[in-house]
Design a protein that fits this description.
By secondary structure, this protein is mainly beta. Among the domains are: about 160 residues, YVTN repeat-like/Quinoprotein amine dehydrogenase (Methylamine Dehydrogenase, Chain H, 7 Propeller); about 160 residues. The protein is about 10% helix and about 30% strand. The chain contains eight helices and 72 strands. Strands 15, 16, 17, 18, 19 and 44 form a six-stranded mixed beta sheet that branches. The protein has a five-stranded mixed beta sheet with strand order 1-56-55-54-53, with no helix packed on it. The protein has a five-stranded mixed beta sheet with strand order 61-72-71-66-67, with no helix packed on it. Helix 4 runs parallel beside helix 7 and helix 5 runs antiparallel to helix 8. It is globular. The two termini are about 70 Å apart. Keywords: Coiled coil, Repeat, Signal. It comes from Pontibacter cellulosilyticus. This is Sortilin N-terminal domain-containing protein. It holds the Pfam family Sortilin-Vps10.
Length: about 1100
């Protein structure tokens, strides 16, 4: 069964044994969240918009498959507020304007394109989107409109368009009078028809005008129009309805999709954009009773009505009408003529949602295939908030660069590439991404020989080779000699790289095409591998009342090609009509094995086949069948004998949502990942059980999965929330390899990815982190370390066994010769003392050793209170030095960072509450520049010299501070003491304090007490060390003359300073001690000389 376990007690989960222990308790991994890396530069399809009328800075938008997003600052920044729900495919949003904290959301989009996403009913929030409650209507699937009675907010109407691929009764208008507790279906025409539009009279909430639309989509065509379509009006809240017909002025015959707009300033004025045998714009001036055709100009009214057929009226001007389709157009003469005000050069094409402020019609919010557009001057100018990462990726790929790049194509937003992380300060920005081909984007495949080049596709089977540096593209779509045979390429065609020959690629139509020269020439290596059903190849007739021929319905095509990486010549092929074909001889012969797959629905969609990396005869087939109507079940199958027999790995009891993608870990065969319409699922027992990975990834469609093998990163391509990266899945590998038993250990240190010694550049563009600047989560600099602590009760603090007993301070009592008073004095010990070190059991310690087994650093972290898997960062530095003049740290304080480590292999020993475990990490030089060990060692020599100087000066300033403390204690002892002896001692003490101050200021500088901005430069030993360190540290190129001179100057100044310190303690301080020893007061000690150890 499927499990989602964010609220279970960890202790209970970790008490599992045997088979149960192999289920993955994801709450244990809450510190291992996937990174959302965007991008947001192209955003994605917006299907719903609403805003608070009394405070329009509060805006809500719904994404087709990316959840609900909220802005509280007029669109400057946006946050997702629906991610905790099991279905985030959005069709409608409505705010209760009398109490804007109340929101209604209908799931399932209302524009039934070929990649339409399915909903599961209606949701309600009473706290502005912080929490949600499912309010039913599950079986309606997709809800396109929601209206709230402004006089009684318990009355809500939901307009269900329904499942576009099926026929069912739960469609039409539903009404609640109790705030969603119960619903009544108040308008229904037939099982094929749902609500295309629905408006309410602003002066009479019982009057609704509804457009019902009969439509049906299959895998190979779309039909709009039929007897179930029509324009309906109710005056009594849905108790009775009047259907408007030809007799009322509407066109005769069947209708298709109808868009409705009612004027707020004149509710008797209603517009209807009607799809019919001849499309037209109609107007009523009597509240919808009688209608007049305004125009049937095809350039205005024939614009893909299945995808956008909506119209809106300016709330202050009943003659100003907006039409949204590919561009946005406006009419100032009640619809007689239109002028485009936002074409493709201004705003992304294909508009689906539109909101006009009812009191200020200058404010318009538009939603389209490329996100949100906002105008504050009635469409003259537009702004695009590029901060909403809701891209719909069809496919995902990675290369092997450092940092590695991710590739993918998006619905109506082209093909892109960008980094999984950057060596730059801050987050991953939109400009880090590069478009490589326009159009609808699909699979994008880097050239394995040179990632500068790659292959990208657009609709209709168009294939191009791109050059990222020059922007050049070369189109490579294969052809065949028989020009009479039409090649059938799927909307989302198949491409594959041959794993044995880097110059060989495969491409799919109904045939498999092979190129041995990167697309320059092609050969066909298969017969037609599809069902080749002529009845499913009538795409030129698709659309119904209005033709819509875009290649989106191309059928009997190849969807996936999967060559084996283990056995040359083994190639798997999946088609959109259910075939699973296999060749074991490079295409000479083919076998269709779909009849051997138990339970696979007839003519199912086969979007992915994955050839195993562990067994040449093993493969995994992903199938779904929701296009047949009501089958939303997931299908993933496994064979280990070249397709002779199959085992089903997922079903409705194991995962939620139909299956879209699959990946078996190439290192650990028991670790598997599945992508469904509702998120990412993980199995650590070869598919026996599955758990939803809810750490950072919402229930968005996971269309594709890729593994960057060098870094063990899982890259998740979603159809609605762009891209996620789950860094370093090695902990999951270990769980899978041990059958989950790793969680039974008190402490586990997991293998880390290789680290790189790099300098981070400043980001390009605007340097400040403004709220409208999108920055996706970047990797932290250094290296992420992952470990696991078994949850249990905390124990009391304990003292470490390694602590040495501290030397007791020597106390003696002396007698003041003049007064006879006893005075307690403390004599500082003559050697360094290690005080008792307290180590708390709630702290993890990581001791790091170099290849010479030298302990170079100790990290510490207090883990999250829930324990489980934790992550911390090592910045690749050794233990740092305390700076001269600084206070001594507590023994339990974290170590400061020091010099950057050298390339090499390091051992990390983790310790927590008595338990230990260890792992290793490789630290590599900067891959962007040539590595020269001699140069690196020369620089390290300079660093070592600076560190020696710092260490010695710190010891010197510690002595100065200790000596000064002794003189202050002496002054306190001498207070109110009379007599020449004490007066002379006070004078000597003051002279010593003056000398200490002068010497210290020469080393660390004078304190500046005066207020003001900045401080004048002081040439001190410390300032010279800082200057030299700023030049020397953190670089990998050859030392410059300036650096060498700065270090030499620091050497000289350090020797001079130490000489002054030594001279002071051997002369003035020694004399002062003798004076003190001649009195009954003893608070000072002797100091030996510090010998400079700097090599120069």
């Amino acid at each position: 069964m499927y499990k989602k376990l964010p609220h279970l007690l960890l202790a209970a989960m970790l008490g599992m044994a045997g088979a149960q222990a192999q289920e993955l308790p994801t709450a244990v991994f809450k510190q291992m969240k996937a990174r959302s890396i965007g991008p947001a530069v192209m955003s994605g399809r917006i299907t719903a918009i609403d805003a608070v009328v009394s405070n329009p800075d509060v805006m809500y938008v719904g994404a087709a498959s990316g959840g609900v997003w909220k802005s509280e600052n007029g669109g400057v920044s946006w946050d997702p507020i629906f991610d905790s729900q099991p279905n985030i495919n959005i069709g409608s949003i409505a705010i209760q304007q009398s109490n804007p904290s109340v929101l209604w959301v209908g799931t399932g989009e209302g524009n039934p394109r070929n990649s339409v996403n399915i909903g599961n009913g209606i949701y309600k929030s009473i706290d502005g989107g912080r929490t949600w409650q499912h309010m039913g209507l599950d079986k309606t699937f997709n809800i396109h409109r929601i209206l709230i009675d402004p006089t009684n907010p318990d009355v809500v109407y939901a307009g269900a368009i329904g499942m576009p691929f099926g026929e069912h009764k739960e469609r039409g208008v539903f009404k609640t009078t109790d705030g969603g507790k119960t619903w009544e279906q108040v308008l229904y025409t037939n099982e094929k028809s749902g609500v295309a539009d629905m408006v309410m009279d602003p002066t009479n909430p019982n009057k609704l005008v509804v457009a019902m639309w009969q439509h049906r989509r299959t895998a190979w065509d779309f039909t709009s129009g039929g007897a179930g379509s029509g324009l309906y009006i109710t005056y009594d809240g849905g108790k009775s309805w009047k259907k408007k017909t030809e007799a009322d002025g509407l066109p005769k015959g069947d209708f298709g999709r109808i868009g409705i707009a009612m004027s707020r300033s004149m509710p008797s004025r209603i517009y209807a954009l009607v799809e019919a045998s001849k499309n037209g714009l109609y107007r009523s001036d009597d509240g919808g009773e009688k209608w007049t055709k305004v125009t049937d100009d095809a350039s205005i009214v024939t614009n893909r009505p299945f995808y956008f057929n909506e119209i809106f009226v300016d709330p202050k001007n009943e003659n100003r009408v907006y039409m949204i389709y590919q561009p946005i157009a406006v009419s100032e003469d009640a619809g007689k003529s239109f002028k485009v005000i936002a074409d493709l050069s201004k705003v992304h094409a294909d508009h689906h949602a539109f909101w006009i402020h009812p009191e200020n019609p200058n404010l318009i919010i538009d939603g389209n295939d490329g996100g949100v557009a906002i105008s504050r001057d009635r469409g003259k100018t537009w702004t695009f908030p590029e901060t909403i990462p809701i891209g719909q990726f069809y496919h995902i790929n990675v290369d092997n660069e450092v940092p590695y790049n991710i590739y993918g194509g998006l619905q109506d937003n082209g093909s892109w590439t960008g980094p999984a992380y950057t060596f730059a300060q801050g987050g991953i920005r939109n400009y880090d991404w590069q478009v490589v081909l326009y159009g609808d984007g699909f699979d994008v495949m880097p050239d394995p020989e040179d990632a500068r080049y790659g292959y990208a596709m657009s609709q209709g089977g168009n294939l191009a080779r791109f050059d990222k540096e020059t922007g050049r593209t070369q189109f490579l779509k294969p052809t065949i000699a028989d020009y009479k045979t039409k090649l059938r390429f799927n909307w989302n065609a198949a491409i594959a790289q041959d794993p044995f020959n880097k110059g060989t690629i495969y491409y799919g139509s109904q045939f498999v095409h092979k190129s041995n020269d990167k697309g320059m020439t092609w050969e066909t290596i298969s017969p037609d591998l599809t069902l080749n059903n002529p009845e499913q190849q009538k795409q030129d007739e698709s659309g119904g009342l209005t033709l819509d021929v875009t290649s989106a319905e191309n059928h009997n095509t190849i969807l996936t090609i999967a060559p084996s990486t283990l056995q040359q010549g083994v190639i798997w092929v999946g088609t959109d009509d259910g075939n699973v074909q296999l060749t074991r001889d490079g295409g000479k012969t083919w076998t269709n094995v779909n009849g051997r797959i138990p339970g696979l629905p007839k003519e199912a969609w086969i979007p992915q086949i994955t050839a195993s990396r562990h067994n040449a005869g093993e493969a995994f087939v992903v199938a779904n069948h929701y296009r047949a109507g009501s089958d939303l079940a997931p299908y993933i199958y496994r064979t280990t004998d070249y397709g002779k027999s199959w085992v089903r790995l997922v079903d409705e009891k194991k995962v939620k949502g139909y299956a879209l993608s699959f990946l078996q870990d190439p290192t650990e065969p028991n670790l598997m990942f599945a992508g469904t319409e509702h998120g990412l699922w993980v199995s650590i027992n070869a598919g026996k059980s599955w758990t939803q990975w809810d750490q950072g990834i919402p229930a968005t469609p996971v269309m594709d999965l890729a593994l960057q093998e060098r870094e063990a990163d899982l890259v998740v391509g979603t159809f609605g929330r762009s891209i996620f990266v789950l860094d370093n899945i090695r902990p999951l590998r270990k769980l899978a390899a041990t059958g989950g038993k790793a969680l039974e250990q008190p402490l586990v240190a997991f293998e880390a990815s290789d680290a790189y010694l790099v300098n981070y550049r400043n980001p390009a563009g605007y340097m400040n982190d403004t709220d409208n600047l999108y920055q996706a989560e970047n990797r932290r600099s250094g290296v992420n370390l992952t470990y696991y602590i078994q949850p249990k009760k905390k124990s009391a603090d304990v003292a470490p066994t390694s602590s040495k007993p501290a030397k007791k301070q020597q106390k003696k009592k002396t007698v003041n010769k003049e007064t006879g008073d006893q005075m307690a004095t403390t004599l500082p010990a003559t050697s360094a003392v290690e005080t008792k070190k307290t180590v708390k059991t709630d702290t993890v310690y990581v001791r790091i050793y170099n290849e010479a087994n030298q302990h170079i650093r100790t990290l510490q972290q207090v883990p999250d209170s829930t324990l489980g898997v934790q992550r911390m960062t090592w910045n690749l530095t050794e233990k740092g030095l305390r700076q001269p003049g600084s206070n001594k740290p507590k023994k339990t304080d974290a170590e400061p960072s020091g010099s950057q480590v050298l390339p090499g292999r390091y051992k990390l020993v983790f310790q927590y509450a008595g338990a230990k475990d260890s792992t290793f990490i490789n630290v590599n030089p900067d891959p962007r520049i040539p590595f020269n060990k001699e140069v690196l060692m020369a620089r390290r020599d300079l660093q070592d010299r600076l560190n020696q100087n710092i260490s010695q000066l710190t010891e010197a300033t510690d002595r100065l501070q200790e000596a000064n403390a002794a003189t202050e204690l002496m002054m306190a002892q001498l207070k109110d003491k009379n007599g020449k002896e004490f007066a002379d001692l006070r004078k000597a003490t003051k002279a010593v304090q003056d000398s200490l101050k002068t010497i210290r200021e020469d080393i660390v500088g004078k304190k500046m007490e005066k207020q003001g901005y900045g401080r004048p430069y002081q040439l001190t030993v410390v300032s010279k060390l800082r200057e030299a360190s700023s030049y020397v540290n953190g670089r990998s190129d050859a030392p410059t003359q300036t650096e060498a001179q700065l270090v030499a100057q620091a050497d000289v100044m350090t020797r001079e300073a130490l000489a002054k310190v030594n001279q002071f303690f051997t002369t003035q301080w020694a004399e002062y001690r003798r004076k003190v020893e001649a009195t009954p007061i003893m608070v000072v000690k002797a100091y030996s000389e510090i010998n400079p150890t700097s090599s120069n």
